Amino acid sequence: MSQRIVTLISEEEIQKRVKELGAQLTEAYRGKHLVLVGVLKGSFVFLADLARAIDLPCRIEFLGVRSYGEGTTSSGVVQITQDLSRPIEGEDIVLVEDIVDTGLTIAHLLDLFRTRHPSSIKVCALLHKPARTRIQVPVDYLGFTIEDKFVVGYGLDWAEKYRNLPSISVVEASES
Ligand code: 5GP
Predict the structure, then answer these.
(1) Position 76 pLDDT exceeds 70
(2) Ligand 1 atom 12: the closest Cα is on which residue?
(3) If DSSP codes are grouped into helix, strand and coil, which group holds residue 83?
(4) Which DSSP letter does residue 156 get?
(5) CB of 11 closer than 6 A to ligand 1?
(6) Listed residue (169, 172, 129, 173) closest to 152, CA to CA
């Protein structure tokens, strides 16, 4: 049985929405100390495009997190594999996530970051799957709401594959 990649959100739709989010963030963070924190690995493509759509000076940080193994269901356990390079006290943090699924990862990161006393902390996610929510988290800036399908591309993987697809896609089994 082979696999078929079916586009859910096209490259053009993503680029248009990311530019809108960038414009929104530009308005909201004028005059503030904006720090974009990309949650690795999945957010690296989104963060790269989003940062270039923001017309403000900002700092960029990455946070390494492991919440999934090779499978496709949440373990509920969030492990920090790489921390920020500098303190965030007094800064305006935007956590940049590829997808909010159960909400467990973002909930954990919000709790962790609040102990470091930033001036503000918001969440920007490209995708949200509300059907799988286990804990309600605020998604202050959201690209798209999607149904309960496992998606790949635009930074998102399936066992480390497909991160370089320019669209958000679904992997389907096919006979041929
Ligand atoms: P949560 O903690 O909200 O359940 O999961 C967040 C993380 O799970 C995401 O950052 C992502 O790494 C992974 N994840 C959740 N849903 C999907 C999906 O549909 N596709 C992929 N590739 N990863 C997902």
Answers:
(1) no
(2) 42
(3) coil
(4) B
(5) no
(6) 169
Q: pTM higher than 0.85, yes or no?
A: yes
pLDDT tens for 24-50 read 999 999 999 999 999 999 999 999 999
The residue whose CA is least distant from atom 9 of ligand 1 is 99
Closest CA to 101 of 72, 125, 132: 132
Size (the chain), residues: 176
Active site residues: 101
Strands 34-40, 59-66: pairing is: parallel
Confirm or reject: Cβ of 127 under 6 Å from ligand 1.
no
Give the chain's radius of gyration (CA, Å).
16
**Distance of CA 168 to CAs 29, 31, 111, 147, Å?**
28, 33, 29, 13
Question: CB under 8 Å to 61, separation ≥6 — which residues?
Answer: 35, 36, 37, 38, 84, 85, 86, 88
CA of 151 to the centre of ligand 1 (A): 9
